[in-house]
């Protein structure tokens, strides 16, 4: 982030300290910040303004320009955060994002363009489980179909994001008599200092055609030769030579393929919708604390506001994975 480094340099921050500070932002955050910092520099250049030393009115004018392009609260909030990290106000001792007028402006944006749940209604988990059940026996499936079945089952029974599925390592998996335990040891979106990383618990399920443990074992047997040759520790591999670790976009595409073949409209629902579908279904049976733990949330408002979407189903069970699979009973 060259612009951020320039701002730090003007404050006399050493190169070594700059390097460490810049590591505090993850790749996704860097990409988002850079988008708005570039727009900010163009904005300042057109007005003959020093982009690192400005008045609060300049910040507000820039945010208004973003608002007028149709951006919503979350995007404008990201722009505010980006500027707060490198721009100083000459007419205030406040950090950009904490200035009362900037805070009030964002409050106005939230009223005019509130952040709403993406889905007003979510698909029925049973529809997709019915399709996955028909993909059997596992031994007869092509590697692509087996990969698609496993990743979709995992997404549904764990309530985790594609990002979490992408970073699963075979070396971290713990096989017990009646379950597989998968700790997520890589940095993911939910990762924070002193916060426990999520752990997926996958129980054996009585319906062999929907048992994620059996599907996992078949997948590992089928891909073992590719791992020996390439020393691939990532769980999911591409289905054609040279069988490299699958990217997040590939995993997302596999899930969307399964949803589409099950009859879900993927023009409306993304791969991430599995998270809302499974947690919303489980919420009709399990206590909120169990769902939050399984899906990796610390704030119940996140679930209630963005993921607890109405569907038309009900059942009984005693844990997240089994609860979701039992919806197909």
Key traits:
two-stranded parallel sheet, elongated, three-stranded antiparallel beta sheet, 15 helices, Integrase_catalytic, DNA-binding, hpI Integrase, Chain A, DNA binding, 329 residues
CATH architecture label name of the largest domain? Orthogonal Bundle
Residue fraction in strands: under 5%
**Looking at the structure, what is the overall shape?**
elongated
Count of folded domains: 2
How would you characterize the overall build of this protein?
It is a single chain. Helix content is 53%, strand content 5%. By secondary structure, it is mainly alpha-helical. The protein folds into two domains: 2-112, Orthogonal Bundle (DNA polymerase, domain 1); 125-326, Intergrase catalytic core (hpI Integrase, Chain A, Orthogonal Bundle), CATH 1.10.443.10. A hairpin with a 3-residue loop joins strand 3 and strand 4.
Provide a short characterization of the protein structure.
The chain is 53% helix and 5% strand.
How do the helices and strands line up, and which of them pair or pack?
Blueprint: H1 2-10, H2 15-22, H3 27-47, E1 53-54, H4 56-68, H5 73-84, E2 88-89, H6 100-112, H7 125-134, H8 143-158, H9 162-166, E3 174-175, E4 179-183, E5 199-203, H10 212-230, H11 248-262, H12 273-282, H13 288-295, H14 300-307, H15 320-326
Parallel strand pairs: 1-2
Antiparallel strand pairs: 3-4, 4-5
Helix pairs in contact: 3-5, 4-6, 5-6, 7-11, 8-10, 8-11, 8-12
Keywords: DNA recombination, DNA-binding
GO molecular function: DNA binding
Protein name: Tyr recombinase domain-containing protein
